[in-house]
What does this fold into?
Amino acid sequence: MSLKVGDLAPDFTLFNQDAQPVSLNQFKGKKVVLSFFPFANTSVCTKEMCTFRDEMKEYESLDAQVLGISVDSPFALKLFQEKNNYNFPLLSDFNKEVCNKYGTLTVFVPGKFDFQGVSKRAAFVIDRDGVIQYEEVLDNPGNEPNYNAIKETLSKIK
It folds into this structure.
């Protein structure tokens, strides 16, 4: 199953890096960027999350909440967050339920370790009513999302 622009974003509740539950529904009335990433503490994932961190003032000015999602445990995400001073929640989809709902779960990531069952790198922009306005699912884990397209989409949402 793959979500597309115009679909209602499936709600979820996941634990953040502080082991607190976070639900998508709690951001109703606000724009949301869901950023799925394969693994904490890897080079491209760190670069991606640091880009969101460093551009947070811009996302805040667009009235957007950024949420990072991976299959890492909340404990691993806590260390990742502390190491890099992320200023947005990192959510643990350890059981892969949200990755399945959003169609980001990869069956196979070829490479040194041949991982199965991690999230593809993906970005979704959700409007104030919970409707997906932008989706990008990347097959190559070495590629980063199109940050400009994400911000452009956010700027068009009233």
Summary: Helices lie at 43-54, 56-61, 74-84, 97-102, 147-156. The longest strand covers residues 64-70. DSSP finds five helices and seven strands in the chain. Residues 43-54 form the longest helix (12 residues).
